[in-house]
Every structure is written in C-alpha cells, then in structure tokens.
Amino acid sequence: MRYSSLRDLDWVMVIIAIMISGVGVLQIYSATHGTIWQNSWWKQIVFVGVGVLIMWVMAAIDYHSLMGKAPVMYVVAVALLVAVLIIGATIFGSRRWIPVFGFTFQVSEFMKVVLVIVMARLLTELRTDILDGWELTKLGAVVGIPMLLVRAQPDLGTALTYLPILGIGIYLAGLRKEYLIVIVVLVGLAPVVGWHFMRDYQKARLVSFLNPEQDPRGAGYQQIQSIIAVGAGGMWGQGVAKGSQTQLRFLPVAQTDFIFSAFAEEHGFVGVIGVLALYFVLLMQIVQNAQTAPDRAGMYICMGVVALFVFHLFVNVGMVIGRMPVVGIPLPLMSAGGSNTLSTFLMLGLVNNVRLRRFVN
Amino acid sequence: MSLLPVEPELAQRVPDKPVLRDDPKLASEKIAFFQYAIVGVFLFLISGFWQLQVRNPDIYSERAESNRIKSVPIGAPRGKILDRDGRVIVDSHSSYSVLLSRETLKMEHLRPIADGLHLDYNELAAKVHRYRTRPKYEPIVIKQELSPDELAFVEAHRDPEFFPEMEVFHSQKRLYPQNQVAAHAVGYTGEVSEKELDSPEFAKYEQGDIVGKAGIEKQYNDILQGVDGQRRVVVDNLGRVRESATADIKEAKPGKNLQTTLDLDLQVVAELAMENKMGAVVALDPRNGEILAMVSRPAYDPNKFAVRILSADWKSLTSNPDNPLLNRAIQAQLAPGSTFKPIMALAGLETGEIDDSFGVRCGGGASFYGHFHRCHATHGGVTLHRGIAQSCDVYFYNVGNRLGIDAIASYAHQAGFGQRTGVDLPNEAEGIVPSTQWKIRNYREKWYAGETISVSIGQGALTVTPLQLAHAIGGLAMGGAWYKPHFVKGQGSKPRTAKLDPVNVQKVVEGMYAVVNEGGTGVRARLPGLEVCGKTGSAQVVSNEFVKARGKTKSQLDNSWFVGFSQRNNPEIVVAALFQGGEHGNLAAPIVRDVIKAYYDKKARLGIPNTAGVPRTARPQAASEASN
Fold it and tell me: Which of B77, B190, B443, B528 is the most buried (most CB within 10 A)?
C-alpha cells in the first residue's frame, strides 16, 4: 500500500480532540473577555488549526522513519534545553521559552514527543523479555537528563510529565520484582529527599495543598478559589460567562492551568461529565490504537501518549478539585497556550501515524 | 484522497537495527489492566466533582458570593442643632474620606499614599499596625475631609496598576459655628474611641463611627445620629467595584434635627461680652428652666474635632493651663462670694432669725470666736436692705452666726447648691455645700462655729457652678420654684418647690433691686426702663494669709461674679456671670446687663409687650402688709 488513505485516520479521535479544543476556546473566551488576555481565544484557534495541520504531517511520516532519527532528535532536543537554560528568554521568572520566527517555543513541551519516540525505540530494541538493571538505568538516564534540565528552568510541573512516559514503558516492558521493590522504595523516599531540593514556593504549595485554609491569602489562595469556583458551579453551572469566580478573576489563571475550574463553574457537574466523557473516549481510542498497532513500536508510542495524557488529566483536574497539589501543568487541548497545544496535536499525529500503518504488515 | 506519498522501501530500511520483539499482542493484558487504571482515574476525578458540585454546592456558592459581594456603608447625615427660633447652630456638610482596604494592601504603597494625601508616613504605618489584630476585611479610614486635590489624587490612583487598596467614602461632616460660638454647650463629635467601644453604652457603634463626644452632641447623640445605610456592590479580585446591586440598598436613616432652647441673639451677645475674659455666662428662663445662652471662656474650635483632632491641636488644648476644654458654666466649682448673700438673707428671714428691724453696726469688720473678719468697707448701721445693697459682710457674718451652718446648708441645698442641677449636659459638677455632716464625712472632724462666718459671705468650703447660681437665684425670684435647667424642650419637668413666704422673697428681691438701682454695688448692671435686680460677688481664690505672705499673682486675683434677673416682679431671665480674675463683682455686672438688654431688645423688636408685674404679696390673710 503506497498511499495511506485519509479515511484511515482515526476520525473519532480527531473529531473528539477538535471538540474538546472547541470547548477550550469558548472557555478561554469566557474567562478572558474584557481583560488584557482577551486575544487569547483566537490565538488558541490559530494554535489548534496549526496543530491539526502538523498532526496530519506527523501522521504522514512513517513512525519507523521517525524512530530511526530518534537519537538525533534526542540530542538536538537536549541541546536546545541546555540552550534555553543559558540564553532562553526570561518570562515569568523562568527560562522555558526560546524565540523562533517571532514566536516563543517551550522546548520542554516538544521534548515530550521526542521522549515518546525515543522510549518506543529503546524498548523495541530490547532483547530480553524483562528489563535488566543496565537497561533500566539506561531508560532512567534517557528520561532523567531532560527532567533535570527542565527542573532547572525551573519548571517542576513539566519535568514531572516525563515520568509517565518512562513509567508506562517500564510497565509494559516488564520488570523484575527486585527492581520493582527498589523503585517503590525510591518513590517512597522521594518526597523526604526531594523536600530538601524544593524551592520555598514549592514547599509552600505542598504544605498549602495539605492544608489550604492555613494561609488562604497566600499559597493556598489559588486552590481555595478553584474549589469555590467548582463548588459554586453546582449541578448545572452558572452559565456561560456568568461564573463570578471566573469573571471577577478570583480564580487565578483561569484560561490556562485552572481552565477546567472555570469550565466547571460555568457549566456545572453536567458539563464536567460531558467533557470528561470526551476525554475518556479519546483516551480509549488511543488505547485501541495501541492494541491494533502493527508492531511493538507502534504500541509503545500509543501507550506513551496515553500515559502522558492521563497524567496531565489526573494532575491538572485533580488540582482543580483540590485533590492534587498546585503543579503548573496545563490541561491538554483546553488550556490556552501554543507549545502545549502543538505538542498535543503532534502526539495525536503519532497515534494516527501508527493507525495508518496497522495493515502495512 | 491520499496523504503524502510514502517511500516504498522505507518499511524495509528502518529500523536500522532488527526488531526482535515484534509481537504486538504481548502486552495486551497489561494494556487491558491499564484501561482499568484509567477508569479509576476518571472515577477519582468525578467523585471529586460530585463532592463539590452535587453534594455541597451551597457552601461554595456562599463563599463565591462573599468573594464578590461587598457591603459599602452609606453614611447617615447627622441631625442639625438649631436654636430656639430654628436657626442653625451646627450643620453637616459633604465630606470625602479615604479608606484603606487591608485585604489588598501592599505595605510599599503606604509611602506614596501618605505623600499623596499629605499624611505623616509614620503615623499611617503605626495605624495600619494597630489594626493588625482586626479582621482583614475591615478597612481603615486613613484620611477624612479630603481637599479637592487629594480627592483627585485618590481617583487617579485607584486603578490596579497604582494603589487599588484606596477607596473613597462619602460622608457628612459637622460644621460648627465660627468664633467658638456656643462651643461648650454644643460640644463636638469625633471617632468613637476604642475605650468607648468597650463600654456598654457604645455597644451599638462600630470602629470609625462618628459620635458626640461632649456637650449636646454627646447628650443627644441618639437623636442626632442617624442609622448608616448599606449598599451592596459586586467587586472583583482587586476590590474594584464592577456593578452596584440596586435592589439591595438599605437607605441611610438621617439623624433628627434637634431644636434647643438656646437663643443665638443672646448667645452672641454673651460671647462678645466674654471676649478675652476667662469665665462663664449662663442665661436661664427662670419660669421653665430653659437655657437661653451658655458661654465658657477660654473656648476651642469644635471644627478641629469634627472628624479627628490632630494630635498637636489636642496637645495644645490639654496642656493649656487655662483648660479651654472645661465647660466653666457647669464645671467650674468656685466660691460664690457675696452672690450667696440673697440665699443667706432668705434663710435668715424664713427661719425668723432676722427681720426688718435686725441691724448691725459695721466698723469695717467684726470679731467672731477670737478671729477678726474684715468687711470691704465701713458701712455703719446696716439692716437687711442696705446689707444686701452694699453687700455688707459684717451684717451677713451676724446672720450666719445666728443661723448656724446646718440651717445655712439646708437653705443652700433648697436653692440647688451642692447637687447637680440635672442639666442635659454630660459631666456636670456638683459644687460643695459644707455642713457638720459634710465635714465629718469628708474630714472626720467636727465643724467649728468660726468656719460658719466665712460661709456666710460665700467663702470657705462653699463652691458653686455658674449654672447652679443662675438656677438658685432664678428659683428664688420665682418665689421658690426651681426648674431644672435644660437645652431641649420637654426636658423641663415640674419645678422643685419650697413654701417660701412671698413677703420674705420680696424683701430679698428689693435688696437685689437696690444693688443695681439704689446706689448698691452693682449699679453697672442698671438698664433704663427695666427693673434689673442682681448681686455682685468677688470671691477670693487664695486665703488672706497666703496673700500677705506671698503677694498676689494674676491667677490669684479674686473671681468676680454677678447674678442678675429681670424684671423685679416679673422675672423672665436670670443671668449668672463669672469673670475669673475680674477682682470685683461690678466688673461682671456689665456682662449680665448686656445679655438682659439683648433679651428685652429682642422682645421689643418682636413687639412683645413688657410687663413689670406686681410685687409678691403675702397670702390673703397677710395681704395688707405686703405692699412694700
């Protein structure tokens, strides 16, 4: 089969992704009209449009070819992360962006795509049925290096999003019980050791997550306002552009990290269930693509994407309802922001890429 | 439709290394298990939303409401204080204040705010610090009575990029008459103090409320003060008002106007008469106790208190040795001197200790109990009429000696001395009427008869306030009916009465008439066409022994008193004047004269006929003797 047919794309997945993006654009409009961010909604439309386009391009380049370039992509991406640390534009007090053609790109977002491909390649090359110590160390280093670089920006949230890519890979590749125990112990110790490496604002966030009312005007403010916004939404919501928490900006960054809170306030429990259902179908669709992948590489790519999305959803939405600490990671497809939107569609493109080639063999 | 062409050889060329584990189904069980994990994540999230949005949405709706709805007080205008003719004495006018919202306050903004509002930075910082224990949502009033340029500063800098913590509050401010007119009677207002807030009578007030602090303002605060209203507004996260909820306005209830018995015409005359003097003037209508004028000097400008007095102003007032804050009309307790003699004369006549024929020889003094008591002149033979007219001390030494201290005290009490008159002003003083009882109670000593001699001429331990004196002589002139002095109609009640023999009263009144009209000590109070009666008094501030030893300084000069009423047989006004350091009573007499003149001039202007009245006569069976 020389030409992959457009009709072979996963249309359910694509349409649902565009629907969620549409909801996101409406919510961005509602949360920002009359503010200095009031242009965010049409910028987001542009991002989504470009995203769909590059998703299509991404789907066309055979993922085996991409996996062949994996080492190059990885080295380039790591080099860019180092560059960002050194020359990156300082915005919001952190070095996350580099300017390209007048836009600013967040390298750490695109690192996700690279890691998904690199992991798939490394896991495909394994010669054993179960990971041994050396391989485990190698995988950990491949993910750990960009994590440390991103963490140094400092952007703990995005750094953490690399973990599920590693995690799902190890899970699927198989792990010896001893290593599993070691990992569990290490994960258990991480908070204790990590506390010493955390910055004050991160400690404050963690403490305020455990007890947000302790300092309602300080670190706990965002979380409390988010919980109030969600609760005030009730069953049916306050109505479009009528949520007082969102409209009067008691809810912080209502168009980015807390967009789901704004949505929950204005559309209520019913709206929340609707959008979560869309996300669920989207995830299940990707899982199905993993199951029908022509080879292990395709399966690893799809599962890497799923794991990443689930992690984003779990942490971001959990934060919105006060069940996770305030970690600044966006909600894929809904939060305003170019880099995240593009990287999300790039990954959906990877999934389509795998799907298009399911009958190749 | 087709996508980009794919190179046919590509699938063969990549991956570079052979793919060994190529069975895609190998991990299908793990994938299936992962799907359950995804379901678990969604259930976890949905249960969170269920908890917040379906189980307890009301809690959060309320919190969202309290975020966005803020109550803004609407200041109730304070009632005006009017004089008896409805003329405005104290008014209110529009005033703008700045509040500081402490929820959004940034400490580094304090200095530019202090500069813009011409405030002292340290005082402002100290004030913010003082409020730290109070809830955050309570704003602080940092400046009241904004000038137009300060108001412009606030309006221009309330935007989020400047100082959004500032809020403008419009209120009504007190406007007191210029030149300190009636300052002590009307008192002043001020921000309720923290000490007051702790006391039960101020329980209904809140921090920042303006309440009466002295005088009528304090006494009738409940009438004058309205009830602040409330407006609910929608605010954003920076506290800026986004919209006003019109439905939910609680209108302010303005305070009621208070009509007093003061007569500005008389008040102004009394003020002028007291210019550059220290002392007090009280004018009463003896027929009902209405206070027509009340002056105390030195005075202060109540406008400085209208909102919050500057600490420098307050310091200069409280450190002034002449104590301008003291309302001398009701708070100066001084020896009445000879103005006490009419009471002595009445006591002597009523008890029967003296009569018309009782006379003494004044040789410039007399000895009692081994002690020589001086008279201010050598009067020769003196009976009651001349005794009052010339204010002969020797005559009254003898009257007092005959009466004894307890009889004197009893008649002094009857006239209202030694107790509060009950005037409707806060912090009235009582004065002292000495007696054997009083001495035992206060000094655990018996009374010496020699002490009675000093009290007989209004010296010794005896002290009175100017209001008490006017009240006492007014009641005497009314034939034994003492009406409670008051500023607000309806406060007067039935008079305290005593069964006095009108003939005796008339004899005392005739003596007081002679003081002014028959070459007595108070001729300077004389008014042509009117039958003014009065009594001078000059009371020592320090004892004669002290003066001999040290000499006199200005603050030890005798206080000069005059109390007068008019007309002789138809009293309509009684005026007491205290001129501290005035040396002799005839210096206080013109003050009383001017006020009485103003009263009758006003009557004439209004065309109200004047009647001289008829002399007080004895009860029917004794009518024939009473014509004199």
Answer: B190
Residues B268, B255, single domain; the answer is no
Which of these ranges, A161-175, B391-405, B546-560, has the smallest mean pLDDT? B546-560
Strand ranges in B314-472 using DSSP code E only, listed in sequence order:
360-362, 365-368, 371-374, 380-382
Chain A, residues 2-21, CB within 8 A of chain B, namely 2-7
B255 and B240: one domain?
A: yes
**Do residue B241 and residue B272 come from a single domain?**
no
3-class DSSP assignment, residue B362: strand
User: Residue B225: which domain range?
Assistant: 70-259
Instruction: State the nearest Cα–Cα gap between A85 and chain B, in angstroms.
Output: 31
Share of chain B above pLDDT 70, in %: 88
Contact residues, chain A, for B2 at CB < 8 Å? 3-6
**Do residues B222 and B348 share a domain?**
no
Do the beta carbons of residue A136 and residue A174 sit within 8 Å?
no
Residue B319 belongs to some domain of the structure: no
Cβ count near B352 (within 10 Å): 9
Whether the predicted pLDDT of B10 surpasses 70 = no
Mean pLDDT (whole number) for B131-146? 75
Instruction: Verify that B419 and B480 share a domain, yes or no.
Output: yes
> Could you tell me which of A10, A50, A31 has the C-alpha nearest to residue A331?
A31
Q: Residue A236's closest chain B neighbor by CA?
A: B53
Two tokens, residue B558? 């005798």
pLDDT for B622 equals 45
CB < 8 Å to B28, chain A? 291
Domain shared by B478 and B399, yes or no: yes
Are A174 and A131 in contact by the 8 Å Cβ rule? The answer is: yes
pLDDT at residue B122 tops 50: yes
Give how far B219 is from chain A: nearest CA, Å: 44
Q: Is the pLDDT of residue A89 over 70?
A: no
Of A129-133, B358-362, B402-406, B480-484, the range with the lowest mean pLDDT is A129-133
CATH (domain of B351): 3.40.710.10
pLDDT tens by residue, A252-282:
888 889 999 999 999 999 999 999 999 999 9
> From the list B10, B27, B44, which residue is nearest A172 (CB)?
B27
Q: Which of B5, B26, B42 sits opposite A280 (nearest CB)?
A: B42
A17-31 core/surface letters (b: 16 or more CB in 10 A; e: else): bbbbbebbbbbbbbb
Contacts of A127 in chain B (CB under 8 A): 20-21
Cβ(A76)–Cβ(A146) below 8 Å: no
Q: Which amino acids of B are annotated catalytic? A: 338
The last residue of a domain, from among B259, B276, B310: B259
Residues B26, A303, A95, A220: is their CA dihedral positive or negative?
Answer: negative
Residue B360 bridge partners (DSSP):
B382
Tell me, yes or no, whether B281 and B215 share the same domain. no
Q: Which of residues 373-432 of B touch A (CB under 8 A)?
A: none
- For residue A247, cis peptide bond before it (omega within 30 degrees of 0): no
Nearest chain B CA: its distance from A156 CA (Å):
22
For chain A, domain boundaries? 6-356
Q: Report the predicted TM-score, pTM, of the whole model to 2 decimal places.
A: 0.66
Nearest to B588 by CA among B518, B486, B516, B530: B516
Note the pLDDT of residue B9. 47
Listed range (A89-98, B82-91, B253-262, B496-505) with the worst mean pLDDT: A89-98
**Does residue B312 fall inside a structural domain?**
no
CB distance B483 to B286 below 8 Å: yes
**Does B216 fall in a domain?**
yes
Domains identified in chain B, total number: 2
A320-339: pLDDT as tens digits: 999 888 888 999 999 998 89
Q: Give me the mean pLDDT over the B360-374 stretch.
A: 91
Whether residues B404 and B534 fall in one domain: yes
Within a domain: B11: no
